[in-house]
Amino acid sequence: MLPFVGACFLALSSLTLCLTGGVTLGAVPTLYDEVLYPNAPFAQTHPDRLATLAILFGMDPAPIHRCRVLELGCGDGSNLIPMAFANPAAQFLGLDVAAVAIRAGNQEIATLGLANIRLEHRDILDAGPELGTFDYVIAHGLYSWVPEPVRDKLLALAQAVLAPHGVAFVSYNALPGGRVRQIFRDMMLFHLGTVTDFEARIHGAREVVQWFQACQPSEEPSAIFQSQVDSIMQRPPRVLYHDELGAVYHPVYFQEFAAHAARFGLQFLAEANYHDMQPGRLPAAVVAQIDRVAAANRIVRDQYFDFMKCRMFRQTLLCHQTIVLPDAPLAARLPLLCAASAAKPVTAKPDLTAGVAEEFRGGQGTGVTTAHPLTKAVMLLLSEAWPQTLSIPDLLAAASRLAGEQPGPEGLAPIILATYSAGVIELHAQPPHCVARVSQFPTASQLARSQARRGRLMTTTRHTTVEVADEKVRTLIGLLDGTRDFAALVRELRPVLQLPEDVLVKGIQANLTLLAEMGVLVA
After folding, report:
1. Cα–Cα distance, 298 to 55 (Å, whole number)
2. Which residue, among 106, 54, 131, 116, has the nearest Cα to 85 in the 3D structure?
3. Of 209, 298, 286, 273, which is closest to residue 245 (Cα–Cα)?
4. What angle do CA 292, 295, 296 make, to 5 degrees?
5. What is the pTM of this model?
6. If you write DSSP's letter for every residue of 430-481 in order, what string do you get?
7. With contact defined as beta carbons under 8 Å apart, do 139 and 73 qualify?
8. pLDDT in tens, 198-236
9. Of 66, 63, 96, which is closest to residue 79 (Cα–Cα)?
10. How far apart are CA 94 and CA 99, in angstroms?
11. pLDDT by residue (tens digit) across 386-435?
């Protein structure tokens, strides 16, 4: 939870749960009916992310506002429903064999009054081309947790229903890092033996991992083992129950997955997180050797990177083999996109003079330090606009004016592609509908207001989730329907919060600012 300034009555935290639906051999009650998986929106699966990468690689994907989306293993629809809510002219279909989850999702759809989404209790082994054609197909947290016939059907179905310029998202446990995960899985399953009770399985699994941790040398702990220990101990119990302790665990090498997809007429497009494809901190000399050996083969190059990074998980985008893809993103396609960045300048007023280095820091360790005036101008403009986006042409014009420098013949392309590859900026095909500043009549999205009235989890316009722990804060969000100015909010919250006037005012101001920063406010 994030501590709050002022009244300290709002606690928000981002959630990054992996989505895993239930698909088995035969539509019968599953473990996902007995122990529900805590599904959530997942930004990497959003059609905006898929369309963005397709555009960069020369494809012409369907516009998000009128696309058709299929999710296999949709669970209770927590990932699909916010997409449908934000795009009423698009169509969405989710399949899952966990009947309890499907019922819960359909109840949420009815509550929200959505007419453009269906969730069906159905085994993908019984599904085929009769489903129709889809521009985007999502299978998150499914491939590595189902038997081989289901893995084959997943790819066959994706190929059969995918539009000519459609994109499929498939995530899976990857090797060689998956071997580390396998060590802990084997250890936990051996320790559990025949134990089936949920609480007992979680307790026993964590118990043996704690034994393992206690046996490691404190002076030189293995970073990769310690990371896995931390992951297991911090993972929500229901996620651990299905992910590490599930009946099927099938990690694959990237080149094996690419070959499997090729058997069904699909090819590798990119990773959903494009910066995951980059060398990162690998030594330049090693990268040069890999490039020499790979000889411009993208599959071989990425496989070597997986070896060097001991990669554990992949989120791969696929498209039809008939499409001719370039080896790298096309700079000429950038004007079709928008940019955004959460990175903030370290200094209060960055100096855009040539030769003066300025640092911009983002989340999860990302950032950029540059003395180039145009790059500094780009980062400053994006930081001021966050969470809103700026179109690439508008960004080019504004950065040139701010820096007092005209870009070269390539425009901003090298700057945008370099910072995008580093994970410092985002690119979007469809900008999220949100505002960067608190307005006179602050308005939260209708979906967020509905969710805040009914529970702790709330979806942002950026397709991420925040947890609102305090009931009083959920009351505040419920009031943000655009009919109340700041004074009206203070009047209505005063009897609820019973705080001194100055503390209440500062608290509401701080909370509204954070809600805008997170992409919750739409006006």
Report:
1. 18
2. 116
3. 209
4. 120
5. 0.91
6. S--S--SS--SS-BB-HHHHHHHHH-SEEE-TTS-EEE---HHHHHHHHH-B
7. yes
8. 999 999 999 999 999 999 887 777 888 999 999 999 989
9. 96
10. 12
11. 999 999 999 999 999 999 888 876 778 999 999 999 999 999 999 999 99
